[in-house]
Design a protein that fits this description.
homodimer; 208 residues; alpha+beta; four-stranded mixed sheet; 11 helices; 4 strands; 59% helix; 10% strand; glutathione transferase activity (chain B)
C-alpha cells in the first residue's frame, strides 16, 4: 500500500496535518486505529517511546512526536526548504503553529464551555503573525515557493479554527487565500472530500 | 541574541559553548520589552531571537535545529535526524510541564510535580540506556542532547536527587558537565549570574 503506517486514535487530532501532507505528496498510507479502551490497557503504550501516539512507521522505522513526523516527511518529500536558511524559517513557522495548536487543544479539552468565546476573541492576536509572514512571502506559502511541512500544519490548524469560528479568517486575506488554494490542490481536495477524512472527529472529546 | 533569563536560551548557550562558538548577548530589560517596540519586530512577538550574521531566527527549538545544521549536531543521516527531532520534542514536552509548574503552580504544585517526574524521566533513561553511546541518538552530541542536558540541570536545582534512580541520565549529566568547554561555561559568571526562570 505504500511505505507509511499511522497508528493513532480515531480522530484527526495530531495526525491531521501529516495525513494532508501525505495525501498532497501522492502517498498512500495504512491506518491502524486504536480503541481508547484498549489503549488504557497499556500494552501498546508501553512500546511507545514517550508512551504516546501518534506513531508513524516508515518501512521498519518507527517514529513518534507529531512534529518530528512532519519533519521526517519534509525530508523525504522535499518539503523542508531549498537550503539551510529556508529550513530554519520553516522550523520557526512550524513551532509557531505548534504554539497555536497547544492553545487550541487546551481550550478544546479543558475550557470549551467557559473559554471558547475568549479564545475566539483573542485569536486575531495569534493569526496576525501568520498573516504577516504569508503576506510578506507573496508566494502563497509561508517560506519559499512550494509547500513545506509548516504549510500543511498551518493549513490543518486553520481548517480546525474555521470549524470553531467560520469567520475567523475574514480579516486575514492572505490566510484566507492560503486555505482556499490549499483546499483546491487536487490531491488535498480529494482527501478532504473522502469518507476517511470526513468521518473522523477533529478531537477526542467531540468538541470543535 | 536577546534574553533576560536562562529560560529558553539555556540549551542553545550550552550548545554554542560546546561547539566552540562565541556569541554576543543583548539583554532586554523586561520593562523595556513591555513598551512593545522590540516585540513588534519579532515574528511571534516573543524572544529569544538569534541573529546569525544578518539572519534573524525565533523559536528556541528552531534555533537549536539551525545550530544543529550549522555544527554537524543533527545526526549522520535522515533516520538519526528524525530520532533527534523526536527526542528534542520529548524534551520540549517536559520543558513545558516544568515551565507551567514554575510560573503557575510552584507553591501548590511543586511536590506533585517532583513525585510525578520519574514517569517522564524514565522515557529518557530508556532511550539513553539503549543507545549506549552516552548520547540520545548516534555517537556524538546532537541539539537534543544539549536540550535534555539543560532541562536536567534545571530539574536537579528543583530536586537534587531526581536522577538517583536513573543511572544513564545521571552519567549523561556528569559527562556533559565535564566536557571542557561546557565546564568552562557552567563555571562562568555569565552563566551563574542569570536566574533560570523569570519569576525567581
Amino acid at each position: 500500500m505504500g511505505r507509511y503506517t499511522i497508528t493513532y486514535f480515531g480522530v484527526r487530532g495530531r495526525c491531521g496535518a501529516m495525513r494532508i501532507m501525505m495525501a498532497d505528496q501522492g502517498q498512500e498510507w495504512k491506518e491502524i486505529v486504536v480503541d481508547f479502551a484498549d489503549w488504557m490497557k497499556g500494552d501498546l503504550k508501553a512500546t511507545c517511546v514517550f508512551g504516546q501516539l501518534p506513531k508513524l512507521e516508515d518501512g521498519g522505522f518507527a517514529l513518534y512526536q507529531s512534529n518530528a513526523i512532519l519533519r521526517h516527511l519534509g525530508r523525504n518529500h522535499d518539503a523542508y526548504g531549498k537550503d539551510g536558511k529556508e529550513a530554519a524559517l520553516i522550523d520557526m513557522m512550524c513551532d509557531g503553529v505548534e504554539d497555536l495548536r497547544l492553545k487550541y487543544v487546551k481550550m478544546i479539552y479543558q475550557e470549551y464551555d467557559t473559554g471558547k468565546d475568549v479564545y475566539i476573541k483573542d485569536l486575531p492576536n495569534h493569526l496576525d503573525k501568520f498573516e504577516a509572514v504569508m503576506a510578506k512571502n507573496k508566494t502563497g506559502f509561508l517560506v519559499g515557493d512550494k509547500p513545506s511541512f509548516a504549510d500543511y500544519s498551518l493549513f490543518e490548524v486553520l481548517l480546525n479554527h474555521l470549524v470553531l469560528c467560520s469567520s475567523c479568517l475574514d480579516t486575514f486575506p492572505s490566510l484566507k487565500s492560503f486555505v482556499e488554494k490549499m483546499s483546491a490542490r487536487p490531491k488535498i481536495k480529494t482527501f478532504l472530500d473522502s469518507e476517511a477524512y470526513k468521518q473522523l472527529p477533529i478531537n477526542g472529546n467531540g468538541k470543535q
